[in-house]
Amino acid sequence: MAGPVQSIERAAAILRLLAGGSRRLGLGEVASSLGLAKGTAHGILRTLQHVDFVEQDPATGKYQLGAALLHLGTSYLDVNELRSRSINWADALAARSGEAVRLGTPLEGRVLVIHHVFRPDDTLQTLDVGALLPLHASSLGKVLLAFGAAPAEPLLETEPEAYTRHTLVHFSDLHRALAEIRDLGWGAEVQEMSMGEAGIAAPIRGQGGLVVGAIGVSGAVERICDTKGRPQPALITVLREAARAISRDLGAARW
After folding, report:
1. 216, 181, 229: which is closest to 97 by C-alpha?
2. Of the given ranges (104-108, 132-136, 177-181, 198-202), which has the lowest mean pLDDT?
3. pLDDT tens by residue, 113-130
């Protein structure tokens, strides 16, 4: 059996070094910390930069972890720990609310549904696990945007798609909605993605309080909302209780 590949071991050591520091590091600092020649360290850093695992500050020339590597770490948490720790709470939420429950995380400018509990009745339903939802038109997505788990900048580049006449396509309207979500601690979409459908969602926090996902309840607008189109307070209460419980299981101390 072949032994370890030295270049990969060195690349891993550089990534650990950058991950463990509180600031960007220059080429000389990386090389001296790991006992590498500057030419060797530079070659590895350039390769890591090419695949977006490392970023270089154009002003100082110093290095930090790149977005692609951070996304891999978040994806591992999303798919494994987040889903496994949410399953029981999601099942209980579906039973208490009488509605479908979805768990979502950000993925490449959309919301990836990583868990879906059917509405507890005998109606025909389609499993949404693996589906990608729009950030601006879903309650899950708006919560992720509001709390910084998904970047809002791509929405500024082109006008978001209008799924219904209620979809928020102007950034000023979306900006106000996100500010309200941050104040309330939960978000809603009422016929913004599909006419006759509504949903509410709340953030799920991990260690340090960072939002790592969202959990939501969705169904017919007449069941989710009152006659004035406002989400039912009882549904908001059980939703937020479930979100807090999952957050506590993930190590969010404030919850």
Report:
1. 216
2. 104-108
3. 989 999 998 788 888 888
Residue pair 91/117 in contact by the 8 Å Cβ criterion: yes
* 4 CA to centre of own chain: 34
Contact 139, 200 (CB under 8 A): yes
Polymer length in residues for the chain: 255
Alpha carbons 135 and 142: distance in angstroms, whole number: 6
For residues 57 and 44, what is the distance between their CA atoms, to the nearest angstrom?
16
* Residue 1 banded pLDDT, cuts 50, 70, 90: very low
At 245, which helix (H) or strand (E)? helix 233-249
For 158-183, the pLDDT digits (tens) are 788 999 999 999 888 999 999 999 99
- Rounded CA-CA distance 252/75 in Å is 18
Kindly state the tokens that stand for 43.
């070659």
3-state secondary structure of 25: strand
**Entry pTM:** 0.69
Contact partners, residue 10, CB within 8 Å, separation at least 6: 34, 36, 40, 44
Distance in angstroms (rounded) separating the CA atoms of residues 173 and 45: 42
